[in-house]
Design brief:
globular; ATP-binding; binds adenosine-5'-triphosphate; binds 4-diphosphocytidyl-2-C-methyl-D-erythritol; four-stranded mixed β-sheet; single chain; 8 helices
Length: 270
């Protein structure tokens, strides 16, 4: 079975409290975008194997969230056969785009479908939450308002079909745990839902991602990327998640051709 795990961006991101388990309570709107990896799973004749192509993935293959997803289900469904998995990596990592989380959530869904485990979405979300805070979103994979660690989700009626997106990844790998450690949780001064219900043009003056200040302090070049997007007509620009990808939202068919530093990865979604 071949699937194409997509990425997410966060539209507004508030870290509102620290929990006893060390994780943080947050509030965000997750929005899926069609920048994708390729993930194929076939039944293996021998042992389970995992191969990759495309962008090199830091860390050991054995720690990959895709294998963790397989092992998580195998604990409860020992009848799962060995599988041959191939991942083609295209979504930048350490970018705040949730690529690894998306891979893990898609793996759960593939195994559920292919081997008829009959798990409903609520159960898949509970498994996904054990793999990472961003994973549950990719089971829903439609715009949601999320709280808790991100696993408490409600549909959010935001459709940005009339807009185009420019994603800039400057090659800075941001460690999510470090980014959370730089923050002082606080209650937001505005209603996230109310701002996102206004036209995109209105977001610039109000909508914030709490990670932007500390991550930009550590990597000042990020501020210039955001400023450049605004100079070239972005209606709204923000860092996604804990960074370092910056996303600009433009009117459809108005994406500018900007000369970026040559090490930046640039993705156009029209
Ligand atoms: C910043 C976001 O991308 C916003 O969507 C997510 O909250 C991060 O989700 P994620 O990458 O799936 O993060 P996880 O793999 O669950 O956690 C990585 C590390 O980030 C910190 N972490 C993560 C999520 C959370 N709600 N509170 C935290 O404090 C913890 O130190 C944790 O060890
Ligand atoms: N399937 C996977 N794809 C990408 N990275 C993975 C995967 N499984 C584990 N990882 C590890 O997760 C790290 C973060 O990659 P990911 O694509 O999830 O970035 P991210 O969205 O910024 O997530 P995070 O906020 O957790 O850093 C990688 O550096 C890698 O070591």
């Amino acid at each position: 079975m071949l699937t194409f795990p997509n990425c997410k961006i966060n539209l507004g991101l508030h870290v509102v409290g620290k929990r006893a388990d060390g994780f943080h309570e947050l509030e965000t709107v997750f929005y899926p975008l069609p920048l994708k990896d390729g993930l194929e799973v076939v039944t293996a004749s021998g042992a389970t194997t995992f191969t990759t192509s495309g962008l090199p993935i830091p860390g050991h293959a054995a720690d990959n969230l895709i294998l963790k997803a397989y092992q998580l289900l195998q604990k409860d469904f020992p009848q799962l056969p060995a599988v041959q998995v191939h991942l083609h990596k295209h979504i930048p990592m350490g970018a705040g785009l949730g690529g690894g989380s998306s891979n893990a959530a898609f793996m759960l869904q593939i195994l559920n479908k292919k081997y008829r485990l009959q798990l409903n979405d609520a159960t898949l979300i509970a498994y996904a939450a054990q793999l990472g805070s961003d994973c549950p979103f990719f089971i829903r994979n439609q715009p949601v308002y999320a709280t808790g660690r991100g696993e408490i989700m409600e549909d959010f009626a935001l459709r940005l079909d009339g807009y185009a997106f420019l994603l800039i990844y400057p090659g800075i790998h941001v460690n999510t745990g470090w980014a959370f450690s730089q923050l002082q949780p606080q209650i937001p001064a505005y209603s996230l839902k109310a701002v996102l219900q206004q036209p995109v043009q209105h977001w610039k003056s109000t909508l914030t991602n709490d990670f932007e200040i500390p991550v930009t302090k550590a990597h000042p070049g990020l501020a210039a990327i955001k400023a450049t997007l605004y100079q070239h007509g972005a209606l709204y620009a923000t860092m996604s998640g804990s960074g370092s990808a910056i996303v600009g939202i433009f009117e459809k068919n108005t994406l500018p051709d900007i000369k970026w530093e040559k090490e930046y990865q640039v993705f156009k979604i029209n």
